[in-house]
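for the recovery benchmark. tokens below, seq after
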């Protein structure tokens, strides 16, 4: 499908009707997917945006959806002048708000991009979860894991063209240089709600590993 034009985003996100209303997730997905108050709450606006994106039916479609999302978002420069605003919104927006705003900050947007990606998956009835990882070099990152075709797939949402990798990140199975810290329905569910929470990733053990097999 043709991606949603940037000028249409506010209209779509505030609309009361969604072309995907009849294709909402089945009830057995709802207990896992975004409920009221979560970052990935399934809203009419989110459903409408998802309807304009690639319909996810295969692992290849996950990459197409990711690339469309990256095309859609504007990457604002992160520097001394933009730092105060970036910190004021870091990890505080929902998928619907991120898409409505239409931007992330360059080099600081991995979590927001994952949240928007998971929201779009959920809006299509596709099970997905948030994964927070850390490296031995003192860096943190966010990834998505999507349940499709009978298995989990790891999706690197900031790397255009990267192929989804079958499997999931576990304590004994890192992804490249990234080691698992925690998983959840979104960042808020694992205690990541603002800039001050980043220290948890290095100073505490994982709170939970939601859904890990």
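predicted aa per position
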């Amino acid at each position: 499908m043709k991606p949603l034009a940037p000028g249409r985003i506010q209209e779509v996100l505030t609309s009361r009707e969604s072309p995907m209303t009849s294709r909402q997730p089945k009830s057995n997905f709802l207990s896992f997917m975004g409920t009221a108050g979560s970052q990935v709450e399934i809203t009419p606006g989110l459903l409408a945006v998802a309807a304009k994106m690639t319909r996810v039916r295969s692992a290849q479609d996950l990459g197409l959806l990711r690339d469309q999302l990256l095309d859609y978002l504007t990457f604002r420069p992160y520097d001394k002048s933009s730092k105060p605003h970036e910190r004021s919104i870091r990890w505080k927006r929902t998928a619907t708000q991120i898409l409505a705003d239409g931007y992330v900050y360059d080099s600081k947007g991995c979590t927001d991009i994952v949240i928007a990606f998971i929201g779009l998956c959920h809006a299509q009835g596709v099970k997905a979860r948030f994964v927070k990882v850390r490296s031995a070099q003192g860096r943190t990152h966010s990834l998505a894991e999507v349940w499709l075709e009978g298995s989990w797939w790891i999706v690197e949402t900031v790397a255009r063209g990267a192929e989804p990798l079958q499997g999931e990140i576990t304590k004994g199975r890192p992804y490249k240089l990234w080691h698992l810290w925690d998983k959840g329905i979104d960042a808020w569910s694992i205690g990541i709600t603002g800039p001050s929470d980043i220290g948890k990733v290095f100073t505490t053990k994982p709170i939970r590993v939601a859904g890990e097999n």
